[in-house]
Amino acid sequence: MIDAESLSSREGERLQKVLAAAGVASRRVAEDWIAQGRVRVNGEFVLEPGRRVRPSDELEVDGIVVQIDPTRRYVLLNKPVGFVSSLADEAGRPDLRKFTDAYPERLFNVGRLDAHTSGLLLLTNDGGLANVLAHPSFGVSKTYIAKVSGTVSAQTIARLTTGIELEDGPIAADRARALGNASPPSDGPASLVEITLHSGRNRIVRRMLDAVGHPVINLVRRQFGPLTLGSLPLGSTRDLTRDEVGALLTIARDATASSALLSSAHLPSTEEPATEDGPE
Is 127 found in the same domain as 235? Predict the structure, then answer.
């Protein structure tokens, strides 16, 4: 366990000790990695194990960011239908406090899922990471499985990936595939469709499928960036693994660097309205 008090001292802690406390490797192995040039601090390679670091420093091993701030928490929630993506709902509907109140940290959601959509939602107290991941210009990919009315053809899948026109402009899925027939509702056949996209536009998956003639019966988000829902039961939470946290922090670092490069070159971003799966 990383000692927050010692890490936050003016001098910081020795690099190899911090890496060991973060669970990345033993001190001896960490020293070997440092000598091999596999460790960077704030973007610079460090070859001497005596380097001292603080919680505000960014550490990388083999290009993957290591979280060394023990006050940060990252939780994956399998959100059930019926819960709004908010910590307080003016209409009195069930909200995320049912899940966040189980943790001592003040957690908040990264992005949104509408009340009728279930699945993967990230909760954290890392505001910097949340801002990057939720911002549509950074284009974090999301994968959904939708149960839709009707039988989905190969031509429909092609339309989803080549692009369709909606009232707020054209949109194309990054990937889409039909998963076969689903248990039909009482009024006809139904199919399962997997769709991956990075757009953050309002209720975009539902609107795309409706536009190709297959209204959504239910919708589940299975993946968000490097995170997958796996077998986590509906309504349950779990802490992210060290590797999952590292993958998210690395995405955030790369996205921030890319944004800074675009700004310095005065290039426009491809920004869309900042919603995940739309307002409630």
Answer: yes
